[in-house]
Specification:
Elements: E1 3-6, H1 9-18, E2 25-33, E3 37-41, H2 51-55, E4 65-66, H3 67-78, E5 86-93, H4 95-102, E6 114-124, E7 127-136, H5 144-159, E8 164-165
Antiparallel strand pairs: 1-7, 1-8, 2-3, 2-4, 2-5, 5-6, 6-7
Length: 166
Amino acid sequence: MIGIKIKSSKDFMNHFLMTDAFADFLFVEGKVITANTYVLDGHMQKDFFDPEEWEDKTICPYEFSKWTDMKQMIFQMIKGKHTPVYMRITLQQKPELTRQYLEGKIGAGDQNLIGGLLCTVKYEKGQVTLTTGVAYNGFLPDKEPEKGWDQQMLKMLSEKGLDYEV
């Protein structure tokens, strides 16, 4: 787990909310404070869908909502002449990409010990920080997957041309 300070909040927020830079992620949870406080849970709600829709993996493929489906709503909450007082968004890499990432890094039997690869984006007082993390389902003594995830996130930011410091 590392903390990453983004040097240009404006550039980052543009990439985060207006492009597909984070299209490989699911929305886990968030909190946005503007004139009101919004607390958001990204879990898909089974009772909202017809049984056929829920079983259709093209409609509901994940436990959490896709970031690409949520970012416009977040943007609508924060747009205007005032910047948000605070925003925290927790994202999780899509499970198929996590499995792909873990191949060769840990044994197949240990892969189920990792519940997800996370990235938390926090905006406060004009500053954006990202915190990487791994959700564990059990004890895994090897921290290489976590260190590798940190490096993968730094690489992604560099590829998008976003300046940062660790």
